[in-house]
Amino acid sequence: MAEEQGLLKHAQALLNWAREKGLAVLHFVYSFRKDFSDVPANSSLYRVLKEAGAFVVGSWGAQIIESVQPMESERVIAKPRIGAFVGTSLDEFLRSRGIETLILGGLTTNWVIESTARQAIDLGYHLVAVEDCMASFSRELHDFAIRQIYPQISTVVRVEDLLRLPV
Description:
By secondary structure, this protein is α/β, with parallel strands linked by helices. It has one domain (7-163): Isochorismatase-like (Rossmann fold), CATH 3.40.50. The chain contains six helices and five strands. The chain has helices at residues 7-20, 44-52, 90-96, 109-122, 139-153, 159-163; strands at 26-30, 75-79, 101-107, 126-135, 155-157. The strands form two sheets. A three-stranded parallel sheet has the order 3-4-5. A two-stranded parallel sheet has the order 1-2. Helix 4 (109-122) links the parallel strand 3 (101-107) and strand 4 (126-135). The radius of gyration is 16 Å and the shape is globular. The two termini are 30 Å apart. The relative contact order is 0.16.
């Protein structure tokens, strides 16, 4: 689905816009220690990931693809959970810089990004969800989240809408 909607092209445009505006750009990598000591032992999801050896730090599945690589000045946060707040210093980082609004994009719309969005709302952040900078396992899952979930917790925009905004 990511390829069909031009996700990478839109993500690159969003990154360029944020960089030009001088916004803090954060990248997240879903990753685990090689021994998986940082995953909950009683979770069926994490048990499957451990058995598959998935998302180990430094492995292919735990890398940022080349076309959206972070610049040296941008922070990369390794996250050991689905959402970006649990098990990371993200909230502390944002609050220490007075950041109150988060612009969300990435994979997956109805799983990882939605989990992060729900955590962010609970913590009092304002959210902007960039629908064409997200993708999911299917068009139906993406569309359901964008039409039914995100409008309740964020402002939903397309990347072209952001490119026209002064910040």
